[in-house]
């Protein structure tokens, strides 16, 4: 009897079950929602991308994240072709699943902010945040190059003064 109950509430996902913690599995296959304001990323404001915890599929970008009103990581858009929608037991919502591994990541409703008016409420336990490295950014690369040039210039000056001070 327990087994039937369990099967009725678990979804087929393309992830090795043993690689997941019970909490992660409950979210990914059981369509669970973590308790609001307990996740790692609901307040995260850093620059980077949010990947699927299980298959590394890129799901969201930092520039579509906005201040959370529900205690989940909230976005107004996803990265194209990264997710799929499924019917939810609540009429006004849809379940959001990763297109890569089918695991459940969160809820979608249609009372979000402009420009899309879509609200993605995502479980932090289904996400893995990757910080954008400064080395990848052209602006910071330019600054680093200028600093290196200034150092080289100083060294040349120093060597010139050193070698000519004996004269
Ligand atoms: Zn995935």
Which characteristics define this entry?
single chain; 167 residues; alpha+beta; Metal Binding Protein, Guanine Nucleotide Exchange Factor, Chain A; 2 domains; disordered N terminus; Met_Sox_Rdtase_MsrB_dom; MsrB domain-containing protein
Describe, in plain words, how this protein is organized in 3D.
With 167 residues, the chain is an alpha+beta fold. It has 2 domains: 2-132, Metal Binding Protein, Guanine Nucleotide Exchange Factor, Chain A (Beta Complex); 135-164. It has 3 helices and 9 strands. The chain has helices at 2-8, 22-28, 138-164; strands at residues 48-52, 58-61, 65-66, 73-75, 83-87, 93-98, 104-109, 119-122, 127-131. The protein has a 6-stranded antiparallel β-sheet, with no helix packed on it. A hairpin with a 5-residue loop joins strand 6 (93-98) and strand 7. Mean pLDDT is 88; it is low at 1-8. The structure holds zinc ion (ZN). Zinc ion (ZN) binds at residues 52, 54-55, 57, 98, 100-101, 103. Zinc ion binds at residues 52, 54-55, 57, 98, 100-101, 103.
Brief summary of the model shown:
The protein is α+β, with helices and mostly antiparallel strands.
So how many helices?
3
What is the CATH level 1 assignment of the largest domain?
Mainly Beta
Overall strand count: 9
The separation of the N and C termini measures: 98 Å
Can you say what the CATH homologous superfamily of the largest domain is? Answer: Peptide methionine sulfoxide reductase
Tally of discrete structural domains: 2
Q: Largest sheet, if any?
A: 6 strands, antiparallel
Enumerate the strands of the largest sheet in spatial order, edge to edge or round the barrel: 3-4-8-7-6-5
Which ranges are low-confidence, i.e. pLDDT below 50, for 5 or more consecutive residues? 1-8
Percent helix, as a range, is 10-25%
Beta-strand share of residues: 15-25%
Structural class: alpha+beta
- In sequence order, what are the helices and strands, one letter per element? HHEEEEEEEEEH
